[in-house]
Amino acid sequence: RATGRDEELRREEFGLQAAQVLEGNWRGASTVPSLALYPHQWSWDSAFIAIGLRHLSPRRAQCELETLLDAQWADGRVPHIVFNPAVPLGAYFPSPDFWRSSTAGRAAGAPDGVETSGIVQPPVHALAAWLVHESDPELSRRRGFLERVQPRLAAWHNYLTGCRDFGGAGLAAVVHPWESGMDNSPCWDEPLDHVEPAPAGSFRRADLECGEGADRPTDLDYGRYVRLAAQYRDGGYRDAGREHAFAVEDPGFNALLALSEHALAEIAAELGQDPAPHRARARRLTGALVQRLWDEDTGMFLCRDVRTGRPVREMSVTGLLPLVLPGLPGRIAGALVHTMSGPHFGLGTATDLVPSYDLHGPAFDACRYWRGPAWFNVNWLLERGLRQHGATVRADALEQALLAAADASGFAEYVDPRTGQARGATGFSWTAAVVVDLLA
Ligand code: 2M8
């Protein structure tokens, strides 16, 4: 039938456009999130990018992850940015001369040959490595892909569970809002409140030269980001034996760690090793999440400020992300689906994509980055979560909405959750990558 055929051609064309975005952002050994705004390699971006790239070139997807892991520090941390030395210093702030990884990070084992940041991002990498392997197991085995990445991924997780368990409950804490990936989430407003911002004029925001000011974090946010990062750097990027001005247990970050532990179990089994320790750790993390961060009143997980010991009473999408976990108790999974579809996130009523923050929250802003807009990587995770817990009809609807929004917005970085209008950059890599994955 003509309409069916038209639809098929349209999908094919759309898939080609997504592939072109990834091709255009490929830099020879890794992919930039966006050409102008983020001209280096970002950690969790690369994981999502590899998940898409595996359908286009499994070899390139492996390379994407291995380039990132080549910049791993000896203490196991995987830096959130790997800098491209060919890019002028002024193109992105903070640049390598701010982080000074190879000198300030020496004691923590920063690599010599490459400049990186000294903080981390959500650990989606083992999941990505496993999915990349599955896309072409024969190539993966021939190249010894899993043998090479597995020890690095294990060291990465050991760093998070060992060096970052400040609260002692078995959860990893983030020491900077950038580490959560959700930079200016309203969840960080309260924990950041006491942080004295770096003086205006002591740094220059490159993001405002290519991004719309109203879509980006504020100058006050940036002042605090700079202060915290400089303090961490000046303490040699040490985690132990010092008081961190910002330390938060983030449910999304920890859920992705647990999900990636499940992937490490698959990887161990494939390599003929015992998967049980990884499964046990995934269970422990899931248990700790439920015990420590679940909030009955809101029907979702909340962040917890390690310094004060108090939950942060803001409803951010990070608190829905544990839905990706296979081992989540059914009652909790059900409550998360309910919350997602209720007035605060409006899925299926006020919105087609899950917003990053409570539609009725005091800090809601439909344009400003992680304070309301809907993000494609996060919605891809939630779609998997819905499917995982048997909410197939909702998962199908979210999948269609995600594809439609990416198409209509020119593969935007994020969109206004009520109108789908593009915000931030367009031609954004992880948006294209999740489209490629969903179309496959
Ligand atoms: C955004 O974060 C960077 C800092 O890491 C920035 O604003 O300059 C966030 O959306 C983050 O989640 C993302 O990984 C990064 C690159 O896409 O951009």
Automatic annotation (TrEMBL):
Keywords: Glycosidase, Hydrolase. The keyword Hydrolase applies. It comes from the Bacteria. GO terms for molecular function: hydrolase activity, acting on glycosyl bonds. InterPro entries: 6-hairpin_glycosidase_sf (IPR008928), 6hp_glycosidase-like_sf (IPR012341), Glycoside_hydrolase_63 (IPR004888), MGH1-like_GH (IPR054491). SUPFAM superfamilies: Six-hairpin glycosidases. Residues 38-431 form the Mannosylglycerate hydrolase MGH1-like glycoside hydrolase domain. Signal peptide: none annotated. Belongs to the glycosyl hydrolase 63 family. This is Trehalase family glycosidase.
